[in-house]
Design goal:
Length: about 270
C-alpha cells in the first residue's frame, strides 16, 4: 500500500512538470494560432504585434510601418524598444522616430518634448540639425489665425534662426529661411489686424503707434506699403471711414487664413485681447 502511494506521488509530480512544459509551449502556440486585435485612435481594428521581439526585429518592423505612414502602430515598436532595450544600438533611432511619429500624428507639443529630450541626450548626434529644424516646425505648425496668438510664429522664428546660426549649410537651410519669411509675414499681418481694429473704432493715436511699430519691425513685409498709406491718411486727418474691408488689403498666406468675411467686416472685438 505504501509503495503504491509513493508511486502515485511520483506520477503526480511528473504530470505536473509535463503540464507546466505544455502550458509554456501553449502560450507561444496560442499567439501563433490566434490573432488578437486592438483599436487605433481612429477607431480602426488593427492586429496586435508580438512585442516580445529583439530590438533589431522591433526596429525593422517599426520602420516598415513608419515608411508607409502607419505612425500609430510604428510608434508602438519604437516605444517598446525604449522600454525594454534602452541601451541597445537601436534605441537612439527609436527615440528619434518616436518623435517623428508624434509630429506626423499632429501631436506637436508631445513631439517637441521628444525632440528636446533627444537633443539633450545626444548633443553630438549627426541628426541634431534635423532635430533643431523639427523643433522649429512643431511651433510653426501651431501658428493660428492672424487675429489670434502669435506665440507659435515667434518661437518658430527664434528656433529656425538658431538652426541657421549653428548649422548654416544643411539640407534644411533654404526651407528654414522660407519658414522665417512666412512666420514674419504672419506677425506683420497680425499687427495690421490690430491697426485695423484701432482704425475701425476711431482710436487713431493707438493705430499710429502700432503702424510705426509695424514699419520698424517689419519694413519689408507685404503690408508695409499699405501701413504707410494709412499712417499718412491718419496724420492728414482723413482716415478711412467707410467699410474698412474695402480699403484694407486681403491677406493671403500659405498656411493661415485671416478670418471669415463676416468677422472681418463686423467685429469690434479687440484682437489685442485674444
Amino acid at each position: 500500500m505504501q509503495l503504491r502511494y509513493s508511486l502515485s506521488r511520483k506520477a503526480m509530480a511528473v504530470f505536473c512538470v509535463i503540464s507546466a512544459l505544455i502550458l509554456q509551449g501553449g502560450c507561444a502556440s496560442l499567439k501563433e494560432t490566434f490573432n488578437f486585435t486592438s483599436i487605433d485612435e481612429d477607431g480602426n481594428e488593427i492586429q496586435s504585434r508580438d512585442i516580445n521581439l529583439p530590438a533589431k526585429k522591433l526596429i525593422e518592423q517599426g520602420m516598415a510601418d513608419y515608411e508607409v505612414g502607419k505612425y500609430f502602430t510604428a510608434i508602438e515598436f519604437f516605444e517598446e524598444i525604449l522600454n525594454k532595450f534602452p541601451f541597445s544600438k537601436e534605441a537612439t533611432l527609436a527615440e528619434l522616430k518616436a518623435a517623428d511619429c508624434s509630429y506626423y500624428l499632429g501631436r506637436y507639443a508631445e513631439a517637441l518634448l521628444l525632440y528636446e529630450e533627444f537633443e539633450n541626450r545626444h548633443p553630438t548626434n549627426e541628426s541634431i540639425p534635423y532635430v533643431m529644424f523639427q523643433k522649429a516646425m512643431c511651433n510653426y505648425k501651431q501658428i493660428d489665425r492672424v487675429d489670434r496668438d502669435t506665440t507659435g510664429a515667434e518661437k518658430s522664428i527664434a528656433l529656425f534662426r538658431q538652426l541657421l546660426k549653428a548649422y548654416p549649410n544643411t539640407p534644411y537651410t533654404e526651407e528654414a529661411k522660407s519658414r522665417i519669411e512666412n512666420a514674419t509675414e504672419f506677425l506683420a499681418n497680425h499687427e495690421f489686424v490690430v491697426i485695423q481694429y484701432y482704425t475701425r473704432t476711431a482710436k487713431y493715436d493707438e493705430a499710429k503707434v502700432r503702424i510705426n511699430y509695424l514699419l520698424s519691425a517689419y519694413p519689408d513685409s507685404l503690408v508695409a506699403s499699405q501701413a504707410k498709406d494709412l499712417l499718412a491718411r491718419i496724420e492728414a486727418g482723413d482716415p478711412p471711414r467707410s467699410r474698412l474691408t474695402s480699403w484694407f488689403p486681403k491677406v493671403n498666406l500659405p498656411d493661415w487664413t485671416l478670418f471669415g468675411r463676416d468677422d472681418a467686416e463686423n467685429t469690434t472685438v479687440d484682437p489685442t485681447q485674444r
